[in-house]
Amino acid sequence: MNDILDFNGAINRRQFFRKGGFGLGVAALGTLLGESALAGEAAGKVAQTAAAKIAPRAKRIIYLSMIGAPSQLDLFDHKPELAKRFNQDLASFLKESGQRLTGMTSGQSRFPVAPSIFKFAQHGKGGAWISELLPWTAKMADDLCVIKSMHTEAINHEPANQLMYTGNMQAGKASMGSWMSYGLGSLNKDLPTFAVLHAQHSSPQSNVQAISARLWGAGFLPGQHAGVTLRTKGDPVLYLKDAPGIDRNLRRQMLDGLGKLNRMSYEAVGDPETQVRIQQYEMAFRMQASVPELADLSGEPAKVTEMYGQEVNVKGSFAHCALLARRLAERGVRFVQIFHRGWDQHGNLPKDLADQCRDIDRASWALVQDLKQRGMLDDTLVIWGGEFGRTVYSQGTLTQTNYGRDHHPRAFTIWMAGGGVKPGFVLGETDEFSYNITQDPVHIRDLHATVLNLVGLDHEKLHVRYQGLDQRLTGVEHAKVVKKVLA
Amino acid sequence: MSKHHSRQMRKKALVLPFAAVAAAACLSPLFTGCGDASAKEGPPSFNFEVQPILATHCLGCHGPDLKANKAGLRLDTFAGATAKLEESEGHAIVPGKPESSEVISRIFDEDAEDVMPPPETGKKLTAAEKDILRRWIAAGANYERHWSLNPPKAAEAKDTSGWSRNGVDPHIRQRLAKAGLKPNGEADKPALIRRVSLALTGLPPAPEEVAAFLADKSEQAYERVVDRLLASEAHAEHFARHWLDGARYADTHGIHIDNYRSIWPYRDWVIAAFRENKRWDAFTIEQVAGDLMPGAGDDQKVATGFNRCLATTGEGGAIAEEYLAIYAKDRVDTTATLWLGLTIGCASCHDHKFDPIGMREFYQFAAFFRNTTMSGLDGNNANHPPNLMIIQPGDRTRMAELDKAAEGMQARLASAAKPGDSEAAAWAAKLPLAPTPEVSIPLNTPGELVAQAGGKRLPLGKGPAVGGAGILGPSPQIGDAQLQGMALKGTPPLAGKGHSWSAWILSTGKGDGPIFSRLDSPKAYRGIDLWLEGGKVAAHAIETWEHKGNKVLSNDVLPAGWHHVTAVWDATKPPAQRLSLYLNGSLAGFTVTNGSGADTVATDSPYRIGARSAGQEPEGPVRGAGGVRAQGFRVHNRALSAAEVLAETVSDLTRAAGPGAGIDQAARSRLLLEAYVEHGNPELRAVRAELAKVNAEREAIRKRGVITLVMDERAEAPYAHVLNRGEYASKGEKVGAGTPAALHPFPKDAPRNRLGLAKWLVDPANPLMARVTMNRLWHNLFGAGIVETVEDFGITGATPSHPELLDWLALEFQRTGWDHRAMAKTMVMSATFRQSAKVDARKLELDPANRLLSRGPRHRLDAEVIRDQALAASGLLVRKVGGPSVRPYQPEGIWEAVAMKESNTRSYKQDAGEGVWRRSVYTFWKRTAHLPSLDIFNAPSREVCTVRRERTNTPLQALVTLNDPQFVEASRVLAERALAEGKDFDARLDVITTRLLARKLAPRERAVAREMLDAARRRFDADAKSAADLVAVGTKPAAHADKAELAAWTLVASQVLNLDEALSL
Questions:
Q1: Can you give the pLDDT at residue B385?
Q2: Would you state the pLDDT for residue A468?
Q3: In chain B, positions 957-976, which contact chain A (CB-CB < 8 Å)?
Q4: Does the beta-carbon distance from A239 to B313 stay under 8 Å?
Q5: What backbone torsions phi and psi does residue B697 show, to the nearest 5 degrees?
Q6: How close B394 comes to chain A (CA, Å)?
Q7: Nearest-10 Cα torsion for B612, B618, B619, B623
Q8: What long-range pairs does B774-780 form, CB within 8 A, spacing at least 24?
Q9: Quick one: pLDDT band at residue A204, thresholds 50, 70, 90?
């Protein structure tokens, strides 16, 4: 089934059931299995749905979420002229800009310019500036589409992360991955459609931001579209392992009996939900095999694991999660999201940021190369980035070797690779302080519209009705697909 | 030429294909559905057929939100729809003339440029929908007020078939008949008792209850079960849980650090409210405005925790004003959802697009909640004010007893010292006269101060003009600039082997420094003093400090209030015992901190007030002691006896006060009573000792009380600013508190605050409250509401499946005096609820989702019910009601994965003992990571008000009930019970299935269970370790000796527990 039909099928199945079809359970089954038990009924309605006439460029997405907001000024947004302005007070500039400051620096008497102490060089044919903190990322500059002109309205982590990953600063909306799951359906009946991994981070000195299931929740979408956390310690999926003392054979026998009893119940009562239940248990059984297989890296050739570096063997490391992400993508999981926390460098930035970069740099490169070698990069979109940027002025004391940076919503940098984005390309420019965007601003909503477009979904048409509104990932305000980044 | 004019020219040629849609296809099984012959005759219902089409397809651009309005056209009102169009000569709607109505020509237009809705909206009308609009306009385009805003009205429904049991059923029967369906007969008794038990209590029936019901052949058998269930504690807990989803109750703040929040007493209040079946109006008023009710007690205040359950933040850098706006919106949303079924919050950024609620009205509504004293940032503090300390439920009975006992004892004591003619006064009159002092500094008149020494009058100089009430008259403050260091010259030197000195001191409970002294600091401080030290009182008698002297210090801090302190120095005693301290006429508990012993304290340095020397002294300037008042300093040149000390104290307390003169009579009575009790009446002394014990226990109870968050109102009148686009920083017009104009009027005599709001919500004129409440109750009992969108009764909400039934229920609810329990009973007593769940092909076709109730309810149980059922069936369930939340089994790393390291809910520590087996309503609810086994079954995070849970079926759920230790342990304990209670296979299987399914299995089902047992038995007999491993799961030790047998039966129990039947209502 091609992706558009799949999407339309999903939408139509849902509409059909909302009007009083066979109940949510059957719909859920359809989505879970990635195949429509009711394709016949749904097919009749396909034509009347406003079909998304967008050719999908990517089938799946791997989102590397750097929670806490990495400093664009120390990684991608090179401002060599700032060296001359070391320690100059930006108070009057800030006043003119009208940007609200967080409670953490609004009381500062001075706002001294803190030039990055890191060396930058241009890389690749697009001439992307990348700092010495990301040597491996620099090596793949020709794979990357760097957007230096991202912006948001949120200035604190909680609302900013919600805006980035659910399209709204307030809780309760559907997450990006759940929209993908809802819109695209599954490619693998044995694995969840949206998988979440939590990577360990190295920066214990800093503020480490909290995250919560609301960033990968389903909101108003049916619950099965919520991200399933694959854990790197304990069972990869909660309660996956059979209770102690129960082996596969015995479990099989138990489920066979359970199926027989449920079928008798179905014969007696006739509730279609009972059949859904039978399927649900069968898929659970299959997951019990497919998920451990997924998590078992022993079959990976040495030349692959070597790319990710030594850390790949440390369960829960970013490298380990990155390799797992590739394996998930390979098995058809639509949306894999790795959360890596610890990027909130309000102080002690030079050391802590370097540690954080070491966590993710090589493995991010390896992930992209690994996908490329397998021919998967063309239809896998990799996204790297945080929820906002950081200030050019120092939070706390500025010295020649140390400084911190506060939250900054008006400009930050992300990169994307593969999946139909322009490789070796840099979009956007900021002013001399990396404060305001001077060229090609991309709001988070625009990013969402673009990402949806890349997987063949129209952000205006991918909506569900909830609380009287057509809910979209991109919300009610204007959002545009950033055509310039499309390959 | 504008696009519109070109359209006008082509319009005449347009042929409307009415005939093509005359036999429109089935749109919805509910209103125009197949088998419903009447629906296509006559004009369509505006509310139930036309309005949904307008809302879905038209009002987004042509509705009440004027900012979003296109072409100046409003289709939400008759006037708007029939007005002359701005851009042409035509009218959108010409009543009675579809062929002249622009709406009709545009929806049938085949030109993508002109057709409505425009293709880019992704919306398209079906032929049936177009036909409804056409017929509606043809019939006059009648607009009706939205159905939910009209008062409920009684409608006749009759069922002559004999199937109906109460007022619910004829409505169901009538609707089924329209669809060509018949209801089912009653479910069999086991299925019925299981269903009603789970629906009303969230727990399965006990085997005895099943047996009793099966044995009870009377007509009232079922009603007896229902009454028993409704009176149970489990019912209160279960219904409270439903409510807590709406109240978004949780045990953490929710945002960012997500620390613990102390608010579980509110949860227990909700349980208690359902236990006592509190009238729904009281239930409402106490939660919304308990703090504002006249004479509000703790219970009413605890109830206001409802508005404190919302998620709050203490994130560094967050802006309080922004969050205060967010909190107000959350409170509006929650209140509107629970009592109005309206999405008022939609109007926070713009006028509501569908419902008649303007943006300004949103802020008027929000104003009710913006008058709280609660700060915008919670400080990550469990006790985020305003809060209330309350006594633990388990202590309340005892506390009431103690209060009562204390009251009696206090009354007895007080009666002994009532002013004037009292026992104490009579006793005091008989005491010997007080001895006459050598030196007296009364300090009992403001202004000129005078002392007496050796019978001489010695002027002291000018004192402060004003004094506070004292024991002897107005009392100056020791630290007063004019008194500070004031010295009394001309008194004879101290000499002799004994001295006594005393003073009245008004303690503040703290302080350090001298009060009165006669010390010669250059001469090693020879002399005497009274001194405060950390709020305790001390006295010195010094020859040469610190090697020859005496110092005593009271053991206790002087409680705030007046005290008479007397020091008695007697050089004839052994060195360490020379100095004694008396408090209020009785020997005090004191410690000798220097017992080296002065042989003499002779000095001629002057007496000083609040100082020890003429200048500033490094070790003892007046500091804290400066805050105290003191008076009545007296010195005797001999050691007084205990009786003399008492006489001096008591004589001051009973001496007649001067004219009008600043006497603290309460302190006098208290102290006189104290002296009398101590020295004059052994019986009262016993009473006092008993009272002290009672008070100590009361204090201990108060100390283990809990804080709960409550609402508190600022003094000024509530107001809010309209926030442009909903942004907190963009303040617009200031508005007072008010309710939307489209709804019923605000009660005339009600205050414009939350109390008035609460009264408005429960006003009988409110058409929504009763409907919304009854619909939610129906939803909770039947699995789906009569209005499926339980949260939204607005124009975009679902249309009711049985509007007349909903009205009947609403009227009944009102008629019974808002008796929620009676209404629950009515619903479960209905033939509708009691139907068998059996479904056949015809019902599946015509009533696929059971919206018409053509059969009894059957749906997957809620997360908590699945867990509680397993605990109850096995007997593990600990039936303790209320108290702090508990931490059951949870896989490792769940909290750690998401929490900040600063969070005090970062590390999960599972409870030892009963905490793992309590009902799920008591599970600790961490908003950012609630118990995964509940989460997987769609328990909401409680971040926002939820009245309708998702009900998905996913493989992850199967993994929970198969492998979560909670369920494995429950299966094993149930297996143990089966082995203990049943002698053979059949009896044992019956134990399991009766407890989980309320029935015995049929023979062919038994055969499957038997296969399971045999297969498992073979496996575990061959592998003892596996058997041991399986039965070791959980924290309750396995009791059955044969582990292979127990393990095998554990699998049988687990298999039954995982049946679709077990997981469904």
A1: 95
A2: 61
A3: 957-960, 962-965, 968
A4: no
A5: -70, -40
A6: 35
A7: 70
A8: B774/B806, B774/B809, B774/B810, B774/B813, B774/B823, B775/B341, B775/B800, B775/B806, B775/B809, B776/B242, B776/B246, B776/B947, B777/B820, B777/B823, B777/B824, B777/B827, B778/B809, B778/B827, B779/B947, B779/B948, B780/B199, B780/B239, B780/B242
A9: low
Other beta carbons within 10 angstroms of residue B1000's beta carbon come to: 15
Predicted TM-score (pTM) of the model is: 0.75
Q: Nearest CB to A28: which of B893, B952, B1060? A: B952
d(CA A459, CA A175): 14
Q: Which residue of A has its CA nearest to B1010?
A: A257
The yes-or-no verdict on residue A71 having pLDDT over 90 is yes
Name every residue whose Cβ is closer than 8 Å to that of residue A245 and which is 6 or more positions away in sequence.
B1020, B1023, B1025, B1026, B1027, B1028, B1029, B1030, B1031, B1047
Partner A, chain B 222-261, Cβ-Cβ below 8 Å: 255-258
CA A14 vs. chain centroid, Å, equals 25
Query: Strands B706-709 and B513-520: what pairing?
Result: unpaired
Quick check: B336 contacting A, CB < 8 Å? no
Whether residue A46 contacts residue A7, with contact meaning beta carbons closer than 8 Å, is answered with no
Q: Which two tokens stand for residue B786?
A: 């009569």
Across A350-369, average pLDDT: 96
Q: Which chain A residues have a beta carbon less than 8 Å from that of B935?
A: 213
Rounded distance, CA B840 to CA B822, Å? 33
Q: What is the pLDDT of residues B991-1019, one digit of tens each?
A: 999 999 999 999 999 999 999 999 999 99
Contact between residue B739 and residue B760 where contact means Cβ atoms under 8 Å apart: yes
Q: Do B935 and B1058 contact (CB within 8 A), yes or no?
A: no
Which of B326, B839, B959 has the highest number of chain A CBs within 10 A, making it the mutation to test binding with A? B959
DSSP state of B394: G
Nearest to A297, CA basis, from A318, A320, A316: A320
> DSSP character for A428?
-
Tokens of A434: 């990396």
Provide the 3-class DSSP secondary structure of residue B30.
coil
Grouping H, G, I as helix, E, B as strand and the rest as coil, residue A185 is coil
CB A379 within 8 A of CB A57: yes
Specify whether the CB–CB gap between B867 and B939 falls below 8 A: no
Query: Do residue A265 and residue B859 have CB atoms under 8 angstroms apart?
Result: no
Mean pLDDT score of chain A? 85
How many residues comprise chain B? 1065
* Residue among B626, B602, B432 at smallest CA distance from B526: B602
Give the residue, B120 or A147, on which the prediction is more confident.
Answer: A147
- For A467, the closest of B29, B343, B1047 (CB atoms) is B343
Side-chain half-sphere CA neighbours of B505 within 13 A: 37
B375 touches A: beta carbon within 8 Å:
no
Reduce the DSSP state of residue A485 to 3 states and report it.
helix
**Would you state the torsion angle of the CA atoms of residues B1035, B1037, B1040, B1043, taken in this order, to the nearest 10 degrees?**
70
Contact at 8 Å (CB) between A322 and A335? no
B253 vs B905: CA distance, rounded Å: 10
Whether residue A485 has pLDDT greater than 80: yes
* Distance (Å, whole) CA B945 – CA B331: 9
User: Helices B189-201 & B207-215, crossing angle to 10 degrees?
Assistant: 130
How far is A175 from B748, CA to CA, in rounded Å? 46
Angle in degrees, CA A129, A133, A138, rounded to 5? 45
B898 touches A at CB < 8 Å: yes
Phi, psi of B99 (to 5 degrees): -70, -20
CA distance A156 to A68: 9
Q: Which residues of chain B have pLDDT under 70?
A: 1-41, 66, 122, 419-421, 615-627, 657-661
